[in-house]
Every structure is written in C-alpha cells, then in structure tokens.
Specification:
- The structure is a single chain.
- The protein is mainly alpha-helical and 175 residues long.
- 66% of the residues lie in helices and 7% in strands.
- The chain contains two helices and three strands; from the N terminus they run H-H-E-E-E.
- A three-stranded antiparallel β-sheet has the order 1-2-3.
- Helix 1 runs antiparallel to helix 2.
- The chain is rod-shaped, with a radius of gyration of 38 Å.
- The two termini are 55 Å apart.
- Bound molecules: zinc ion.
- The site of zinc ion has 8 residues, from loops.
C-alpha cells in the first residue's frame, strides 16, 4: 500500500490542505479586520457643522466616508466568505483523507468481530429451528479449520452433544 507514489500523493494532499487552511485563514482574518474597520470608519463621520452653509460639504464628506466604509465592509465580507470557504474545504479535505484511512483501519479491525457475530447468529438460528429437542442440529463450525459437524441436542437441558454421545455431557440424561 505504501508505495512511493501514494506517499507523494499524500504529501501533495497535505500541502494542499495546509495551503487551503492557512491561506483561507489569513484571507478570512484580513476580511474580519476590514469588516471591523468598516464599522469604526462609519463611526468616524465628520461632525455636523455649526455653520449651515457648510452643510452641503459635510453631507458630501459623510457620504464619501460612508461609501468608503461600505466598500471596505463588502470587501471584508467577501474575503471572510472566500477565506472561510477555502479554510473549510482544506479542513474537510484533510479529514476526508484521514477518515478514509481510519475507516479502512476500522474495517480491518471489525472484520473478525463481524465473522463471529454472523457465526453466532447462524448458531442461534439453527438452535431456534430445532426447539423440539433430541433432533440432530447442524452447527456451523470454524469455516477455515473444520467442516460442518452434526450435534445432538439434549431433550431435558438442551445442551449440544457429540453425534456419537450416549449421555448428555451437561446433565447426564440419556440421549
Ligand atoms: Zn442434558
């Protein structure tokens, strides 16, 4: 699995993730600063003139500073959105790449447990189908080590005994 090629691909994926997370983070940070700046800019409007003849220039100055604050705010939001998205893509890509590896690992780990569970389930099914007692029960043995085995179910206690057993190995009753 760990061929030089896949190692190189992993390395490339890691670098892409780092660029996306760090680059996106920086963009988002700049965006957040600009957005915050636009608020303080909108607060710093020139005070209303005492002389009414200057009202027009005050209005123009205020409009200009509001426009500046607005464009700064918009730039900030766009940068924040783009940077945040890039950052999220990087984080998701990173987790996706790692979870892919983790899930493969879990699948390998749980495989024997799944085999045991299915074997136990099959065993339970065969027992349930032979509730009458004293009936030969087919028990699924170890698939890799031995073939299927015929067992005798005890009439009084239900314990499984070898095909050739005369008495129950659990309660001693004659089979
Ligand atoms: Zn018995």
């Amino acid at each position: 699995m760990a061929t030089p090629q896949s190692d190189a691909r992993k390395q490339t994926a890691k670098i892409i993730c780092a660029i996306l997370i760090i680059g996106g983070g920086i963009l988002a940070l700049i965006g957040a600063i600009l957005f915050g700046l636009s608020f303080s800019m909108s607060m710093q409007t020139p005070s209303f003139p005492t002389n009414p003849s200057q009202a027009n220039s005050w209005f123009n100055a205020t409009t200009e500073s509001m426009n500046q604050a607005f464009s700064t705010g918009v730039t900030g939001i766009v940068l924040l959105g783009v940077g945040g998205t890039l950052c999220m893509i990087g984080i998701r890509y990173y987790f996706w790449a790692n979870i892919g590896r983790i899930s493969t690992y879990i699948a390998q780990e749980t495989a024997p447990a799944a085999t045991i569970t299915s074997r136990a389930f099959a065993h339970g099914m065969s027992e349930g189908l032979n509730e009458g007692g004293g009936v030969p029960v087919k028990v699924i043995g170890e698939p890799a080590t031995s073939s299927q085995k015929i067992m005798i179910k005890c009439r009084s206690c239900g314990a499984l005994n070898d095909e050739n057993a005369t008495f129950c190995n659990h309660c001693g009753e004659e089979l």
